[in-house]
Design a protein that fits this description.
The protein is of the alpha/beta class and 358 residues long. Helices cover 32% and strands 18% of the residues. It contains twelve helices and 14 strands. It has helices at residues 10-16, 57-70, 84-89, 100-103, 120-125, 139-157, 160-168, 192-203, 230-236, 256-260, 279-287, 328-345, and strands at 18-22, 40-44, 47-53, 74-78, 92-96, 111-114, 133-134, 184-188, 207-212, 222-225, 239-242, 266-270, 291-296, 316-318. The strands form three sheets. The protein has a seven-stranded parallel sheet, with helices on both faces. A five-stranded parallel sheet has the order 4-3-5-6-7. A two-stranded antiparallel ribbon has the order 1-2. Helix 6 (139-157) crosses helix 8. The structure holds NADP nicotinamide-adenine-dinucleotide phosphate. The site of NADP nicotinamide-adenine-dinucleotide phosphate has 30 residues, from helix 8 and strand 9.
Length: 358
């Protein structure tokens, strides 16, 4: 990801929260009139961090207290609890599904930190937003996603949907067993989550072919990139795991033509965002028998409407967006660490490229 250019006021605003203390040298009694520049200690004043979110108030208060405990020099305050002057003083907003109209009431934001890894909705709702948006990159989240990818790949690999159906029918029938090394799993997206998932699958013995926008290397995986390589990846993927962000390029990516490029009997796992897969085309591919099963954690509309045909489709496993939930403990530590680092050095982690969409 690209490092954003800083707003013109970046330097001035970040410095405004610091005061400089001059420490007396050890030899205080004999020291000269001026303190040594080597003994300057920079101490932050108390900064205001606005918490902006459409999650429930109780959860927001939990995040605020967690972050406040990790950031003794800061006040992390829910937007609704900020007075007018405090809204003007806030340089950082910590957000989770923020209302754009609320963010607009923080005129001096220097940057925004998302508590979530996926920022698709923010990107869509904030066209032309100026302050850099930093999203959560948490190794624990990547570990959780890799665990989910392995779990549901094994669920499909060991034919659990078929055995569950056989049990409902009181049917005793042993399906043929294949070893993991006889199976290739394709992963669309080799970012923080996709690359962790690839490593976990390789460790479990699967062949992995991965796809990204730009060249990526994952040890042990066959890595391809660019629109031209997608067909090769799909043709090789008996199992397909989707972990690309939802952007203008990936919306509807897995349409009828792309689904048809998967091998006969392929199985699909979508852990990214619902609209990357065309739902009507997916149902057709399942009904025709071209696809054997789909595990869906994400949907065009969430929660999945009660009248959706996906609920009862025998070829679909529905999950309620649980593949990789944010871990409040590790996420708070990472967000607090990024804020401390910025206060100390003025440096931000790589920001989301709002133009590119991720
Ligand atoms: N279900 C859940 O519980 C859950 C939880 C968290 C996140 N997610 C989803 O997971 C997604 C991925 O997260 P992440 O942290 O791994 O994102 P990331 O680090 O930004 O990685 C995204 C990957 O997708 C690739 N990509 C993007 N657009 C592409 C295109 N047009 N063609 C080919 N490859 C493309 C990127 O290519 P480059 O490497 O070339 O940039 C990168 O490899 C999130 O956006 C979110 O939707 C789901």
């Amino acid at each position: 990801m690209e490092v954003p250019s800083e707003p013109a006021s970046f330097e001035r605003q970040s410095e405004s929260k610091y005061c400089t203390l001059f420490m007396q040298p050890d030899t205080a009694n004999t020291a000269g009139p001026l303190p040594s520049t080597e003994t300057i200690v920079v101490m932050p004043e108390q900064g205001i961090i606005a918490l902006v979110s459409r999650i429930g108030e109780a959860q927001q208060r939990l995040w605020a207290s967690r972050l406040s405990a990790l950031l003794p020099g800061e006040r992390v305050v829910l937007f609704d609890d900020l007075c007018e002057s405090e809204r003007g003083a806030a340089e950082i907003a910590v957000v989770a599904n923020p209302d754009p109209a609320v963010l607009a009431q923080l005129p001096n934001l220097v940057w925004v930190h998302s508590l979530w890894a996926g920022v698709e909705r923010m990107v869509a709702e904030l066209p032309g937003f100026r302050p850099p948006v930093v999203r959560l990159i948490d190794p624990e989240l990547a570990r959780t996603m890799a665990e989910a990818v392995l779990a549901w790949t094994l669920y499909l690999f060991r034919d659990m949907p078929a055995y569950a159906q056989q049990q409902r029918e009181r049917r005793w029938h042993q399906l043929e067993y294949r070893r993991p090394e006889q199976v290739t799993v394709g992963i669309l997206g080799l970012g923080a989550l996709g690359s962790a998932a690839a490593l976990r699958l390789i460790d479990a013995g699967f062949n992995v072919i991965g796809w990204s926008r730009s060249p990526r290397t994952v040890p042990g995986a066959d890595c391809r990139h660019g629109a031209g390589a997608l067909g090769q990846v799909l043709a090789a993927s008996q199992f397909l795991v989707i972990l690309t962000p939802l952007t203008s390029e990936t919306r509807g990516l897995m349409n009828a033509a792309r689904l048809a490029e998967l091998p006969e009997g392929a199985k699909l796992i979508n852990f990214a965002r619902g609209p990357i897969v065309d739902t009507a085309n997916l149902i057709e591919a399942l009904d025709s028998g071209h696809l054997a099963h789909a595990v869906l954690d994400v949907f065009d509309e969430e929660p999945l409407p009660v009248d959706s045909v996906l609920w009862n489709h025998p070829g679909v496993t529905v999950l309620p967006h649980i593949a990789a939930p944010t871990d409040p403990e590790t996420a708070a530590q990472i967000v607090a660490g990024n804020i401390r680092c910025w206060r100390r050095t003025g440096e931000l982690p790589p920001a989301v490229d709002l133009g590119r969409g991720y």
